[in-house]
Amino acid sequence: MSDVEEVGEGGEGAEIYPYGEYEGGRDENLDRHGWGSALLPNGDIYEGNYRRGLRMGKGLYCFRNGARYDGDWRKGKKHGIGTFVYPDGTTYTGQWRKDLKHGHGTYHYANGDTYEGNWFRNFRHGLGTYSYNDVNVTFYGTWKNGRMEGPGVLKYPGYRYHGKFEQNLPKGPGCFTFENVWMQHGFYLNIRDPAFDYVGAEDLTLDDTEETTESEYRGNPRGIVPIWRARSVAAFKSELLPPSPVPLPYKDSEDSLISIMEYLEQQYTIATGENETDGYVDENDL
Amino acid sequence: MICDYDDEPQDDDSSSTKLPDAEKEIIAAKLFMQQCSTLTGDNLYDHLSEVLNKILSERPENVIDFFEEYSRKVKEKRFKPKNDHLEDMFVPPIQYATACKIIPLLKEPHDLDTEEQMLADMTRNDMLQLSYFFEQSGLGLPKSDMFALVLSMRKLIKTEPVASIRFWGKVLGLYKNYFVLEADLKEEECIRRNELLAELETEQLTETGAGGDTTATSLENLENEEEGESKGRKLPPIPKAVFKPLPEPPQEPSGVGANKKVYYVCNEIGDEWVQLPDVTPRQIRVARQIRKSFTGWLNQDIVTYPDFPGKERNYLRAQIARISAGTQISPLGFYTFKQGGGEGEEEEEEEEEAEGEETEGGGMKTSCLENRRYESPPLGDLLDSSMSFWVHHILYILPQGRTSWWNPSPKPEADEEEAVEEEEAEEKPVIPGPEPEIGPPLLTPLSEDASLDAMPPWSVRISSNVLPEYALVIVRSNLWPGAYCFTTQGKIFQNVYIGFGHKHVAQNFTPLPLPFVEQDYPMGPEIMEMTDPTGAEEEQWRIDHLPKLPLDAEGEEEGEVEEEEIEEDD
């Protein structure tokens, strides 16, 4: 803030206004308040509701690169239900909490795949369904931190696989069921892809180190293929199926009492009109 | 047990000399009573039990007075008149059905005219001779089937434009089996088909082009709507998911590569032969990834992961192409690339194809001719387990699904001369392009074949160790169980496939691993919202940039106020 002020002091009179454009309501502190349309200093556009200088209520935020968020805001953060269109054309529609994807939502990926299910702190977490668009396969099961982990069901055309997953790959004992008539028990092994044998060993080791250091990578492990080892075929019995996916218990922090009060206050102001907000200013500032 | 006591005194009376055995006696008596009458086929035991059963169930009074009546009634009931020869439905015996199918083949008019002989090359179809060799090698079909096959093949060549024909094998299915014939189409027919194919492709191209336009317009509409929504400010366009599936390599034209031959199938000999459609590279690629039993119905849907593009007839054709490419072998030297005194036409063909290949697949030879100066390798060499005296005479199918590699990102088309120049000039941009897939060339010895799981891909044996002078050499593919080749000391050889149409898998089938799970858009500065400037900041700037007017004092005051407010905010 001080930097800006210095610039302002030192600049000439013909200097460009550094705060973009704004049309809309302001409160007694001259903060943006009520409905407004802003062109932000970096070229982003926001059109929607403000409350005391922060985005609150419904609003559309559009980035310079075309990405946009249309939905609920609270205290200047994405919070509530909204749709985010990312610069690569993928979209997320669902619940947000404190700028993070959190709750129930659907993500449409660039190649047509979709994930519908639970999110926790920006990652796929909990029960979710992932549909592979190209190959007509759906996965239903448990996700942890953006990856398939734990029990899940893969639905192929004509048959299903019930089993456990680790790092997006099936691993361990499981069974294929064929139209609920037959089932084949066995287990999945995760082994090195023979196709990767031709790749220089150095590249692979590099990859490994990257994976260990790079905690952001949440895709499939590279160079590993799941191999199915069948053991027995039997008539279908539902009690022989491996445990089915269950929702993950996770603790959501409660909305703090203050924020609830603020929310109620906001509702009140919306109901009574903006003119009467003056009476609450003191409380808020305290 | 109680009976035993009752019976014992009687037994004593009848036979005093032998020690009686009650159980034996009862069995003997029962056997006697169960003897069937030679006239009616009834026996006393059943009759008595039926009569007693009837009496006990009806329980009439004074049964003893009309016991004979009961016995007669039961007998009467059992009596079925034998004059009921009329049946409601005519069920023809199975033999009759097969006979009906084969008789027309036998009645087919045939004369050994030269014209008929010109129809198609049937020289390698002496099925009776072949069946003898099959028998020697321990495989093959019944002789009657083989004979009927020749007849139906002879019928087929009169109606279909084929240049040569051969019995390929038999593919076993769950409900019905397929007999498969392999044929070379006549040249005119190939040209006609390729023209049709080209027409279809152009049509598809125009269709897809039209489709693309409509999507584009719809997207434009969407954009317009979006722009209408924004009040005042012009929003940048919505980013669109740009996902281009990999381009699909085009089908090889008939007469080339995997579509070099056409195949006719039927479920039973005497049925109409059905020509299988030409195979597409995608079908071959998917067929490599799935494992599905044949049912015997050509129009059966193939429900698999990944999706197979087509019906069972396409799947069968793809498997046949794979089996042919993998297992059609000949003794070394039987086929050769160039022939000294070849006919003009053949040479031209070869040249044309060679030219075509140079542009496409890097100068690989795609066809071979029969060697006229062929001398069979000695028996010992043919039996050599290194298999270096046997060669593939069908082109290897690349991972792409074609025998010649198709460049998915081709250079802009130009005249041939220019193209050559460009090739030289554009060597640098070619390097980052996709690396062409290269397979083993034609007539590669089997010793070069890759083994699967430490198992040799081929086994060879001799039909008789006692009489090696007349013995056959039999080569068996271990990768494609059911594929055999035999040769009589290298003179006559024949490839045949009799099996389920599946490749060998060492352990068990594993479904193709799923594609990678897509990742969310990563957090980054480009999608972090900016906080709005506070009113205080804006006001400060405005005050700082006020035109220098005499109202300085007021401005300063305001500025102070703002600063205080800012502190409070912090």
Structure description:
Chain A: This is Radial spoke head 1 homolog. The complex is a heterodimer of chains A (286) and B (570). Chain A has helices at residues 2-10, 201-213, 257-272, 281-285; strands at residues 21-26, 32-39, 45-51, 54-62, 68-74, 77-85, 91-97, 100-108, 114-120, 123-132, 137-144, 147-156, 159-166, 169-178, 182-192, 224-235. With 286 residues, chain A is an alpha+beta fold. Chain A folds into 2 domains: 16-104, Histone H3 K4-specific methyltransferase SET7/9 N-terminal domain (Single Sheet), CATH 2.20.110.10; 111-195 and 219-249, Single Sheet (Histone H3 K4-specific methyltransferase SET7/9 N-terminal domain), CATH 2.20.110. Chain A has a 16-stranded antiparallel β-sheet with strand order 1-2-3-4-5-6-7-8-9-10-11-12-13-14-15-16, with no helix packed on it. Among the domains of chain B are: 43-79, no CATH class; 127-191 and 248-337 and 365-406 and 437-499, no CATH class. Chain B is extended. The model of chain B is unreliable at 1-15, 210-230, 339-363, 412-431 and 551-570 (pLDDT under 50). Chain B has helices at residues 2-14, 22-33, 44-58, 67-78, 94-107, 114-119, 127-137, 143-159, 187-229, 281-289, 312-327, 344-361, 379-382, 416-425, 427-430, 535-544, 552-569, and strands at residues 162-171, 178-185, 262-266, 274-275, 329-331, 335-336, 369-370, 390-392, 458-462, 473-477, 483-488, 492-499. Chain B has 570 residues and is of the alpha+beta class. Chain B is built from 17 helices and 12 strands. At the A-B interface, helix 1, strand 1, strand 2, strand 3 and strand 4 of A face helix 16 and helix 17 of B.
